[in-house]
Design the sequence.
């Protein structure tokens, strides 16, 4: 389990849509240029590989969560849980669609791309519900 999705989604909610999309977009550009920012590789070939859909999904989710953060969904634990679930579903939708083209959709859902990660994602969503109010205060202070 990595904390990558927690950071992406939490940062997006706390920072807002524009900053979240530009930050995650820069992360993708760095990875595309070959900088070692991804978990298991770098470069355009890596991004076009089996897990590239998850990266694109994180970009989309960062925009969604940034928007929901601007709408103040992160001000309550329930709103945070709902928003993080929406973001996680977006990541899975793009990730599983891409992964399924490489390993088959049954394997992507059951063995490789969904079920093994659900317990960790539930934990990360609960953790975000506890941490986001503090992150929101930090970004509000930084924005002035």
Sequence:
């Amino acid at each position: 389990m990595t904390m990558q999705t927690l950071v992406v989604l939490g940062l997006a909610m706390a920072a807002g849509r524009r900053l979240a999309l530009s930050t995650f977009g820069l992360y993708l550009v760095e990875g595309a240029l070959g900088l070692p920012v991804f978990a298991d590789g770098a470069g355009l070939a890596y991004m076009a590989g089996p897990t590239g859909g998850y990266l694109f999904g994180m970009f989309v989710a960062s925009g969604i969560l940034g928007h929901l953060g601007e709408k103040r969904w992160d001000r309550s634990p329930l709103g945070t849980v709902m928003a993080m679930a929406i973001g996680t579903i977006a990541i899975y939708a793009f990730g599983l669609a891409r992964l399924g083209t490489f390993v088959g959709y049954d394997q992507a859902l059951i063995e490789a791309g969904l079920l093994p990660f659900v317990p960790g994602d539930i934990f990360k969503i609960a953790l975000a519900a506890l941490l986001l109010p503090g992150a929101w205060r930090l970004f509000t202070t930084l924005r002035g």
About this structure: The mean pLDDT is 90. The longest helix spans residues 77-103. Residues 4-137 form a domain with the Arp2/3 complex 21 kDa subunit ARPC3 fold (CATH 1.10.1760.20).
